[in-house]
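I am still getting used to backbone structure tokens and would like to learn alongside you. Label the sequence line and the structure token line clearly, so we can match residues to local backbone shapes. Would you write everything just below, so we can both look at the same thing?
***
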Amino acid sequence: MADASLTWLGHASFRLDTPGGKRVYIDPWFDNPKCPDSEKEPERCDVIAVTHGHSDHVGSVVELSKKFGPLPVVAMIELKGWLQGQGAQTDELPGPNKGGTVEAEGIKFTLTNAFHSSSSDDGAYLGEAAGIVVGLENGTTIYFAGDTCVFGDMQLIGRIYSPDVAVLPIGGHFTMDPREAAVAVELLGVKRVVPCHYGTFPLLAGTPDELRQQAPGVDVLVLEPGETVAL
């Protein structure tokens, strides 16, 4: 099997290419100000996974699913139902809830806790926000925290799922900042971190350098939008 690779599309959007040759989009929002033009017209998609319902995380889900669907969409049960109502071309499996695991295209997705809100632009309730643990075909595990503050039960996520890499928001204001993210790293017990949800707008002021200062000895994998890292 080939190595997995993770490509940052700006903000909290990622393209994950798995060892089994599958392409997964996490929180796709191709209209974000940092998304490279080369990534705005995906050539394929096998699975979409969404942490919560805010428009900066679901922005391109409907369009992407219409282009390549129907395909598996992993999202909280209320959120998945809402996306279907918006025209998303999804599989028929009900969305999971926290603690639930869905297998799609040979990849395992488990929803974890997150402390954040989740609603549509018009205020519709879209279930609770979640993190997602992704278990790849070769056993590599990636934890996408989604939008959250740090919380003590990240220690349980580390204990149960032993992620190899954590993708953490660091921008502050809407999510944790580098100081909180450094504590998250400690609780999770990870040595490799991909920071996201920073720099998209001036309000998201946290930086990877600050995270490095707060979390010495941790490999902070800093990507420019469009860059890829091997997992």
The helical segments are 55-58, 61-68, 77-85, 154-161, 178-188, 208-214.
